[in-house]
Amino acid sequence: MFLGLHWDDIVYLVLLFGSIGFGPFFREIKDPQKRKNISSIIGFIIVIIVSGRHTVYPLICTVVNALIIKCLDKKIVHKVSFAFSFVFLILFRSVEYFGLPAYPNPTNLVMMIMTLKMVGLAYEVNDVYKHQKNLNSNKSEETRIIEIPSFIDIFHYGYSYLGVLAGPYYTFRTYCDLFTTPFWKYANCESVALERFKYLPIYGVIFLVLSYYYPFSEVEDIDSFNEKSLWYRLWFCFPSFAQFRMRMYIGMRLAEIVVIMGGLGAYPEFCEPATLGPTKNLGQLTELSSDEEKASKEQYNFVTVYSIEPYHTEFETTVRASMKYWNMSVQCWLTSYIYLRSSKAYRTLFTFVVSAVWHGTSPGYFFSFVSVALFLPIEDIYRRKSKQMEVASWVATLCWILAHQSKHYLFGYWVVLFRLLAFWPCWSYLSSVYFIPTILSTLGMYLASLIIFRNVRSLKRTDQNAPQLVKKDS
Predict the structure, then answer these.
(1) Which residues contact 203 (CB under 8 A, 6 or more apart)?
(2) Helix, strand, coil shares of the chain as percentages rounded to 5?
(3) Nearest 5°: CA angle at 141, between 139 and 145?
(4) Dihedral, 250, 255, 261, 266 alpha carbons, nearest 10
(5) Worst-scoring range by mean pLDDT, 88-102, 235-249, 258-272, 457-471?
(6) Using CA atoms, how far apart are residues 470 and 448, in angstroms rounded to an integer?
(7) Cβ burial, residue 204 (10 Å; 0-12/13-18/19+)
(8) Count of C-beta atoms within a 10 Å radius of residue 424
(9) What are phi and psi of 137, to 5 degrees?
(10) Alpha helices in 290-337 (DSSP H)
(11) Using CA atoms, how far apart are residues 457 and 244, in angstroms rounded to an integer?
(12) What is the rounded distance in angstroms from the CA atom of residue 57 to the CA atom of residue 60?
């Protein structure tokens, strides 16, 4: 280990910075097919570098999904792709039980993003089927559907160096736009990339300091950890989560910059892009795609390329609000393809289960994700009651601070479980803190919402300009 980084981490960072540096040269390639080929060749080389012989796993995922998409009825293609991809992801993470050699950590990242891409593509193909069905019944609406991809197009999409290592997730439609529209030529890629990069050195310094003084190995050595005071064991969630956040900010921001420097995800502002692509004025966007002169005069952004928003992650006061800005492209995938397309009776729980399986099959993931799922309804009650409060400005400010710190603490508590992974280390840690955060977070907030807020309504507002207890979601 060097400066708190494992060898895999160092290779990961070198490849990300190398991909960023290659971006300007990549954009100089004018021929779309040549750019597409070079993008895939470099992406495949990156996968080989980080995976070696384990490259076979993402290759199987891509080939089988290509066969599913090309050969099966488009009415069911998304369900079959989802079932195969997630079962294969579970089997891939279980290779050691079959006597096969363990895979390096970066290969897991490749498999995670490949799974999202292949299943997402299957859903896009299914949307083509639905669109054609609506056309036949005169129920069509303005939308941008894809053409059914060829086998080689599916390979290009899966292995493009733009996001092959760590995302962010983007749709096949967005990928195709990089080669069929001129938007990337006129977007200020360097300026946007620099804006995303500017705080990364600060995050890096914080990460190194916290890794040195509060290494996560303290928790992993549970016997030594239990010798420390209860207050320290409870407090350790704060530096542990801060270290984890800085690491994620750096990795996800660099991954975004790789994609931005390649020009992918650039769209005119008038079409109001979101994670899955443009949302407004789609007809006008189609016309602009073939008019270079007009395209050169538009203002562009890269809203489509977002994994994380550190400011909101840091300063939102509720778990639910902060989650919206964490791993944003994955959350959009889960919302669009799992949550909104599932039965209302079980969609929330099912979405959290899918998210847990996607992250990994270790008990620690289920400990953390199920904890979040059980906590959110309690937080919603608290938040709903808090909106009815009328209190003095100093009380509202104090409550904001308490809510902010409580959110960070709970995230830190869950992240410890997320990182410990195995059942007994997780259980040992929970026992070492006597489940106090779980008990206080659920029971405490519920009682506060029922009792304290009921009485506090009688207080009169002393300052008409008092800030709200909970900041509204932006």
Answers:
(1) 246, 249, 250, 310
(2) 70, 0, 30
(3) 115
(4) -110
(5) 457-471
(6) 15
(7) middle
(8) 10
(9) -105, 10
(10) 292-295, 310-315, 319-323, 328-334
(11) 39
(12) 5
pLDDT in tens, 217-234: 999 999 999 999 999 999
With tokens 């009688």, the residue in question is: 458
Output Rg (C-alpha) for the chain, integer angstroms. Answer: 24
pLDDT in tens, 91-117: 999 988 888 998 998 999 999 999 999
| Predicted pLDDT at 153 | 96
Determine the Cα–Cα distance for residues 181 and 185; give it in Å rounded to an integer: 9
Residues 6 or more apart in contact with residue 101 via CB below 8 angstroms: 54, 95
The CA-CA-CA angle for residues 190, 194, 200, to 5°, reads: 150
Ranges 99-108, 335-344, 370-379: which has the least confidence = 370-379
Give residues with Cβ within 8 angstroms of 441, minimum separation 6. Answer: 375, 378, 406, 410
Distance CA 19, CA 176 (A): 20
Paired tokens of 255: 């991954």
Which residue type sits at 370?
V
- Asked whether residue 468 carries a pLDDT value surpassing 70, the answer given is no
Residue 460: count of CB within 10 angstroms of its CB: 8
Q: Say which residues have a Cβ less than 8 Å from residue 76's Cβ, sequence separation at least 6.
A: none
Does pTM top 0.90 for this prediction? no
- Hey, CA dihedral for 268, 274, 280, 284, is it positive or negative? positive
